[in-house]
User: Which sequence fits this backbone?
């Protein structure tokens, strides 16, 4: 599995990298603009991501804008919903309006911080990204 982690907080980034690297190759970006660039470059090289973990509150371009840009690129490239990258929004913002907005923009799942590893792994299973060991 190829994973992109977009997280501006150093501690959260380090945790996500350590946690997710057991499931596949991880790339890391520190803002939404870098995340969109990394996504585009991976698509162009024919090695798109299977999973993107996208923080909502990031500098330059926030997670919502990055999510919308990624989904727009997929539409432009005529990538079907089945072929679309799975995007899990990771954030301390767990208010209903934030969750709703993320799903309206096309996220696949939503994980509140601090990340609960067991719940997160269950979400990865539900999305078909990992199998029971």
Assistant:
């Amino acid at each position: 599995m190829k994973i992109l982690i977009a997280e501006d907080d150093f501690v959260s980034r380090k945790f996500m990298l350590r946690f997710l690297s057991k499931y596949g190759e991880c790339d890391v970006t520190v803002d939404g603009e870098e995340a969109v660039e990394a996504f585009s470059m991976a698509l162009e090289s024919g090695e798109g991501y299977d999973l993107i973990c996208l923080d909502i509150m990031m500098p330059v371009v926030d997670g919502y804008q990055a999510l919308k840009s990624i989904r727009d690129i997929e539409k432009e490239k005529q990538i079907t919903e089945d072929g679309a990258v799975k995007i899990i929004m990771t954030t301390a913002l767990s208010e209903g309006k934030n969750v709703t907005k993320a799903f309206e923009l096309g996220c696949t799942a939503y994980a509140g911080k601090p990340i609960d590893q067991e719940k997160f792994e269950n979400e990865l299973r539900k999305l078909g990204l990992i199998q029971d060991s």
Observations:
- The radius of gyration is 13 Å.
- DSSP finds five helices and five strands in the chain.
- The CA atoms of residues 14 and 108 lie 23 Å apart.
